[in-house]
Amino acid sequence: MATLYFSLLLASACLESSAFTSVLRPRRFQLKASLTALGAETYLQCGKCKAVYDVDSETLGRGKKVQCTVCDHSWWQTPDRLQYLREGWEMVDMADEKLQLVQENMAAGRDPNAAKYVKPGEVTVFIGNLPFEYGEEEIEGLFTPFGEVNGVTVVKLPDGRSKGYAFVEMAKKEAGEQAIEKMNGMDYQGRNLNVARGGKE
Known about the structure:
It is a single chain. This protein has about 200 residues and is α+β, with helices and mostly antiparallel strands. It contains 5 helices and 14 strands. The chain has helices at about 1-10, 55-60, 95-105, 135-145, 175-185, and strands at about 15, 30, 40-45, 50-55, 65-70, 75, 85, 90, 125-130, 150-155, 160-170, 185-190, 190, 195. The strands form 5 sheets. The protein has a 4-stranded antiparallel sheet with strand order 10-11-9-14, with helices on one face. Strands 1-5-6 form a 3-stranded antiparallel sheet, with no helix packed on it. A 3-stranded antiparallel sheet has the order 4-3-7, with no helix packed on it. The protein is elongated.
């Protein structure tokens, strides 16, 4: 299931069709809080950028030409080629930042679902036991007092939630070492941070 999930998660946006009377909302998959059986919810997927859209067979009729507004790829979609949402998953709106990442990747000629590029620094710092709601900006804010931060990679679950740890690329080795020395074991919002070298020596 994980392979399918990752192949579908990152890209989603509006779908256009001359026969559609409304614009379809951006969507993505996530695990349901309660793993009850789902109804026969159907979706289609762009073969180029892997954007996904929830749509039913009645909307398609006997078939319609549709166009993905993420990558402009168009194709003929028939109801019998729709896919069924797996049990235990649900569709929710896709975050704008995910859509922007896909579009940036395509403009740069990269795989549409490639992770955000982070320029390597002189040292990579691991930080764990973070508040789960912390994103890249909040974590970067913890490290900027020590020096320039090239980028932050938050490790996430398949549904997009943080696992509570991240890797920070510090531009200068000395800044990273100072951050490790000052923050490792520090009490932060009731949590003892775990900060250490996260890359190769």
